[in-house]
Amino acid sequence: MKILHVITSLETGGAETLVVNLLPRFRALGHEVGVVVFKNGRTPLMERLERECPDCKIYQLGSSFYNPRYIFQLIRIMRKYDVVHTHNSAPQLFAAMANIFCHKKLVTTEHSTNNRKREKGGLLRLMDKWMYRRYDTVICISEIAENKLREYLSLTPNPGLTPTPSPRGEGNMLLPNDNICTINNGVDVDGIHKAAPIEELKTDKFVTVMVAGFREAKDQDTVVKALSLLPQDQYEVWLVGVGRRQEIVKSLAESLKVQDSVKFLGLRTDVPNILKTADVVVMSTHYEGLSLSNIEGMAAGKPFVASDVEGIHEVTEGYGLLFPHEDAAALAGIIQQLHDDQAFYNQTARRCYERARQFDISEMVRRYNEVYER
User: Fold this and answer.
1) SS3 for 303?
2) Phi and psi (nearest 5°) for 290?
3) Model pTM greater than 0.90?
4) Rounded to whole angstroms, how far apart are CA atoms 245 and 215?
5) Fewer beta carbons within 10 angstroms: which end of the chain, N or C?
6) Which of residues 231 and 111 earns the better pLDDT score?
7) CATH class, range 189-359
């Protein structure tokens, strides 16, 4: 089978990491694979994909995330494949429009519980309803993400999920055969757990690391604020990723006079090694689907601490530790307790690793492949 993934870029992020994790595994199953990247540019994730899956065809379309010209380029490329699998808003829409002329099987993955289009509603919501009807299968990365999508589209709730009434009182809009399902994100649990720490990054300080793009959905600000409430000679924060909010967070660190204790590590392909080097993994966020950084942090055998928001709450509760959204003092208190109480630290780390094993990538690959075969 010929499988094409379409995504905005191969920079940092959960969707980007998912694609790079999946493609070599589908190639190993005997499929021919390719990926369309809207925004040109070599990145560590792209270089990793080239190393791990040299037979994967990479199509780079332009210099921006959004350009209607990509629709015509997609028509030409999509005709070479059997299944087209999209990620992120622009690829979802542009591939659906291109498929009017290609008639390929379309699959998409919903990576979050919210986005700017859903918040604005109106015409954008009508456009989304048209778009999702074009897809043979819509995969959500968590049950809460599926529930939120069904609410947004005024779909009949999944019987296995807690129904959320539509505030707009509209009737149900069914996709063909109601083809929405949940396949939880997965990671290479054993590979991450066995990764070696990075010697040159080691420090005497107690390190909290966050792996996420500097985007509106993420909340690195609260992590920096929490650090400012802790003794600077004992604690340090590492922020892995890039994005348009990076300079804002740097300015915040300077204004709080903690810039010497905040390391911006940029784009990295050695994230498992970084996780093994740090002491605590945190995900401070405004909303989430199912964070790969969440599962990766747990797989590293480190305590995982996260904002108590939908999407991340369901995976973390009872295993990792949750703090109220944007509550820097609460986050600082948790980090300090993990530093001061070794028994509490070990107990939390053990629970997190046990939870991560439930999200091994092999199960995700099996279920994705079932979708393609069907």
Assistant:
1) coil
2) -145, 105
3) no
4) 6
5) C
6) 231
7) alpha beta
- Whether residue 261 contacts residue 205, with contact meaning beta carbons closer than 8 Å, is answered with yes
Write down how long the chain is. 374
Fold of 2-187+360-373: Rossmann fold (3.40.50)
Residue with tokens 């630290």: 345
Give the contacts of 158 (CB within 8 A, at least 6 positions apart): 143, 146, 147, 150, 180, 182
What amino acid occupies position 277? T
Q: Which pair of tokens denotes residue 109?
A: 């993955």
Residue found under tokens 């009508």: 126
Task: Work out the average pLDDT over 271-291.
Answer: 89
Above 50 in pLDDT, residue 169? no
Q: Is the pLDDT of residue 173 over 80?
A: no
List every span in the chain annotated with CATH 3.40.50.2000: 2-187+360-373, 189-359
| pLDDT, tens digit, 9 for 90 and up, residues 78-103 | 999 999 999 999 999 999 999 999 99
